[in-house]
Amino acid sequence: MKKLVLAASILAASAMSAFAADMPARIAKAPVAPPVVTYDWSGIYFGGAVGGVWHETGGNFFNAPGFLWSTGNGDGSLLYGGFAGIQKQWGNWVLGIEGGYNALDNGFNSTLGGGVPGAACGYPIGTACESRLNNMWYIGGRVGYAWNRFMLYGQGGFAQADIDTQGFTLPVGPAFSFAGATHNGWYVGVGAEYAVLDYLILGIDYKHYEFDSAQHNCNLALASCVGPQDFRNVDATADAVMGRVSFKFNPWPAAPVVARY
């Protein structure tokens, strides 16, 4: 009887070993990594900016054919102002609209008079053409691509500037034929921003401005106005580089943005 029980035990153990050998090996699965939640650039923002701007003008004295008006871009001027905007993020793309106003702390840029047709400044030798960009405002679109808290963007839209022009008697004055006008135009540019905190963003911004031609006609009632032969068409370009600080809040928080890098 004992031999029978022992034989049965050996047979059962052999069967269990064979069954275990036929079972497929268990494959260990790697743990699933949680999704990476990134910064959401959606929201309303406002802030301030400061930097430098370089501008130059071109044109002609339209009552004196062949005589030109232009000024160089000088050494640059301090530019400062504020801005506000609204934007929304879809995936890595950020679309928005921004408007801003900038004032300048500057004097007049000058180009020496040549006294002949075709010279950069048609005023007589011993005088100069002078221009001053007073302020600018803009409104336009932004298209950005974000990597978590860092974003690069392009921009463009409508711009407007107030520009003054005058003649100047060298070396110390007086000025004459002062005139000014508001110029419509456009701008394009690029920039980069980094969200230091959820609500605090630092950035750097570049804009190139093109302002349309407008008439600068001095007041004939003033003794300093040379006369109608001094009336001029003037256009302008400007390039501005500014550092920015902005504060953002999101009035419509949604599901966290998931990175797709």
Characterization of the model:
The chain is 8% helix and 59% strand. The chain is mainly β and 261 residues long. The chain has one domain (36-248): Porin (Beta Barrel). It starts with a helix and ends with a strand. 31% of the residues are buried. The model is unreliable at 4-8 (pLDDT under 50).
Distance between the first and last residues' Cα? 73 Å
Q: Count of helical segments?
A: 1
The helicity comes to under 10%
**Number of self-contained structural domains:** 1
Which assembly state applies to the chains in this document?
single chain
Mean pLDDT: 88
Structural class call reads: mainly beta
Number of strands: 12
Q: Outline the biggest β-sheet.
A: 8 strands, antiparallel, barrel
Write down the CATH topology.
Answer: Porin
Please compute the radius of gyration using only Cα atoms.
35 Å
CATH class: Mainly Beta
CATH architecture: Beta Barrel
Helix and strand string, N-terminal first? Answer: HEEEEEEEEEEEE
Q: Taking strands numbered 1, 2, ... along the chain, how are they ordered across the largest sheet?
A: 2-4-5-7-8-9-10-11
3D shape: elongated
Give unreliable regions as ranges: 4-8
Beta-strand percentage?
over 45%
